[in-house]
Design brief:
Order of helices and strands: EHEEHEH
EC number: 3.1.-.-
GO molecular function: hydrolase activity; metal ion binding; RNA endonuclease activity
Protein name: CRISPR-associated endoribonuclease Cas2
Number of helices: 3
GO biological process, one term: defense response to virus
CATH topology of one domain: Alpha-Beta Plaits
Shape: globular
Structural class: alpha+beta
Oligomer: single chain
Keywords: Antiviral defense, Endonuclease, Hydrolase, Magnesium, Metal-binding, Nuclease
Helix content: 25-40%
């Protein structure tokens, strides 16, 4: 199932550690503190435990949102990006 992970963490070092964990699990960054990708239930729980450990006593909030295919079809976005981030004539943005 697709999973959206978003977080709000004040300490840069911890925030970077969380982003690296998300990348380790194959999630793709969609915003500075938001990652998205495929995770089964076991991998999502494993990542949640590793993030919890990495967060430690640091103030922060991390949310995991499993998203089913039906809901994923309803996703919409509004973007206004610099031209350097626009890939191709169809206006699709690249990360």
């Amino acid at each position: 199932m697709k999973t959206l992970v978003i977080y709000d963490i004040e300490i840069d070092k911890v925030r970077v550690k969380i982003s690296e964990l998300c990348k380790d699990y194959g999630l793709k960054r969609i915003q500075y503190s938001a990652f998205f990708g495929e995770l089964n239930t076991n991998r999502r729980e494993e990542l949640r435990q590793r993030i919890k450990k990495a967060l430690g006593q640091t103030v922060g909030r991390i949310h995991f949102f499993p998203i089913c295919d039906k809901d994923l079809r309803l996703v919409a976005q509004v973007m206004n990006l610099p031209e350097v981030l626009i890939d191709g004539a169809d206006g699709e943005a690249s990360c």
